[in-house]
Amino acid sequence: MVESMFSVSVSKELTRARKLLLEGKINETHEILTDFEKRGEITAEEQLSILLLKGRLYVMKWQFNKPIELGDAAYQIAQQLGNIPCISEALILKAYVVFRGKLDKCLRLISEIEKIIAPLTQESLPIYFQQGIKFSTLFLKFWVFYFKGEYDKLLDIAMQYSELAEKSDVKIYSIQSNYFLGWVYGVVKGDRNISLDYFMKSLEISRELSLKPWIAANLSRIGRVNWYKGYLDQALNSCKQSLLVKDVGDYIKVDTFDTLGNIYREKGDIERALKFYKQEASLAEELDYITPFARGMMNIGSVYRVKGNFDQAIDHFKQSMIFSEKVGYSYTSFYSLLLLILIYVDQNSLEEARQYLTHLKDLAEGMKSRFFNLGYMLAKAMVLKKQGRTRNLAEAESLLKQAVEEANRRYVDPQVHIMIIISFCEYLLDELITFEDPEILEEITPLIIQLLEISEAEHSYHVLAETKLLQAKLALIQMNIEEAKIFLIQAQRIAELHSLNLLAIKISSEHDRLLEQLSIWNSLKEQNASMPERIKLASIDGVLNRLQGKGAIDPPEIVDEQPTLLLILAEGGTLIFSLPFTEEWKRDETLFGSFLSAFKAFSSEFFAKGLDRAKFGDDLILIQSVGPFSICYLFKGQTYPATQRLTQFIEKIQKTTSIWHTLENFYQTSQVLDLKDSPSLKSLISEIFSGKNPVLENIK
User: Fold this and answer.
1) Once rounded to an integer, what is the mean pLDDT over residues 216-245?
2) Final residue of a domain: which of 119, 149, 179?
3) Cα–Cα distance between 407 and 421 in angstroms, integer?
């Protein structure tokens, strides 16, 4: 944030530097100041102007520590000279302690500034000074209220900033105005599209001025918005572009590391997430930025919770809580407390859980926040549930029901909303195991629908895919096996579409497991097995833990499948091409014939029901259609890598004109194609079905 200076009798060079700074010309401003200082004899007024200009220069670059020290020095000189406007500007530089977490001190300095300039008449102050003070105080107030969690004030500040920017011909103010509006609509209003539009406008003007720090800042926030929208690859790209911009402030890097951690955590790559969260906390600690340090420690704790390293998680949550409360950063204080309580509940450390529950209650009452109160209700319900006894369980159920209803009435932080719903689902499933009452499943169904709606509205695609997986497991518990298959296919497609490759592999392995266990499930269905037996075989705990943030994705190790048979058939089931990969299939014509007879049934079931795999003896089948052809791949092993291989094969036969024309010619003449008739097809099959597995590249 840059404002013009107001002092008396400064040289033309410093006046020019002030003008260049307002135009966003950082390097030129720096050169003038450096050259001017080399002259030796500098008046007190010139020294004052240099200090203030340098301070604004560092602010422009998002380097928020240096302006504080420069402001201290400038304040001393301005007082000696009796220069009231420059005293105000020096106080503005000192107020950047907001980024060190000193929120109340920042507000006191702003109040002092406003008192100093109040008696000054409009006529006695240059317009650039009037604008500068207004923009500066709004800029600082924005960050104070953001860190305090008083989000309701942010939109008003951003709108005031926007109105002032429209009246000013200084483009930097337009950059900042659009940036703040983008922030508010993204973080507070939850309207990601409008948020992205504002950040793109801010980026456009930043590029027009070649203002690198603000280019980096906007790219970082665009990455953040794309993460919110579920566009993880685009988010990664924007963040990486931001980090490549040279000569920008470390505060932008801290924020970008946070977003990168969030992206990789969403992808299920918790080791990379941990790496970036540690970079976030380390750099913030080095720069004495307490608020992002507290956030980083909370993030690290959340990853350790996912990994099951509860002692490390507890340690980091406690540190985050201590530093958050030290500076009044209520958001991280709240989350650290909530997650700390949940860990103690999971560890049966109820005395500690109750101790921190009292702390959370005090915070919720002090903030008078509906959002914080919902978190307290969730934590209290979990403590009561763990305590057992009928009355405690009844109160826990009542609290969870109330929390779900309140969260549904008005927009609330989706992370807390999801935690509440999943916790209630888990509570009901425990009841289902105890009482074996099928009507309990009817209570879970609307909760699942709510989860789907929230995750889709918030573009939280990992939650959406996991919820579909949960639906599949609930369908199995109800013995609706075909319905479970459909939910598994939907879950995997969501994961693949949104680059959640680790989750896609996990879901695919769950689907393979179901096909392997079909005889067991059919047996349980015939025996009318008990609910505990069904729930145990469905292995529902993993998805519940991941949705609650206390479990990691554990996909199987990817290994090459063993190809059995590759077929290409035309419409009507006419065989165009076949290639057995094993001696058994080459020799046994009866086996091959029986498979061809079964193929029509397989293919009609695939395309009618939207299936993506089926079981044939010891093998799995994949069928994909392309033009007038159906490609069938029979194999032993994991479906996910096999699917990648088949998809790659289909894409290449479409793009290879000679292969495609050969297939069409043999189709029209009703002939069966032999490999010797198409060297290109032979080469392609050898490349894809004997080469390295393509899935390994997709999960990086």
Assistant:
1) 95
2) 149
3) 9
Domain of 13, in residue numbers: 1-149
Q: Is the residue at 118 inside a domain?
A: yes
Residue 589 lies in a domain: yes
Give the per-residue pLDDT at 8: 42
pLDDT greater than 80 at residue 693: no
The answer for residues whose C-beta is within 8 angstroms of residue 345's C-beta and 6 or more apart is 353, 382, 383, 385, 386
Residue 272: CB atoms within 10 Å? 15
pLDDT digits (tens, 9 = 90+) for 26-44: 889 999 998 888 877 888 9
How far apart, in whole angstroms, are the C-alpha atoms of residue 697 and residue 384? 47
Sequence-distant (≥ 6) Cβ neighbours of residue 484 within 8 angstroms: 472, 473, 475, 476, 514
Output the domain CATH number for residue 624. Answer: 3.30.450.70
Distance from C-alpha of 550 to C-alpha of 340, rounded to nearest angstrom: 12
Mean pLDDT over residues 554-569, rounded? 87
Q: Which residues contact 226 (CB under 8 A, 6 or more apart)?
A: 196, 232, 234, 235, 238
Residue 615's H or E segment, with its range, is strand 614-616
12-26, 432-446, 636-650, 682-696: range with lowest mean pLDDT: 682-696
Measure the CA–CA gap between 374 and 408, rounded to whole angstroms: 11
390 inside domain: no
Last residue of a domain, one of 149, 178, 205: 149
**Domain containing 122 — which CATH number?**
1.25.40.10
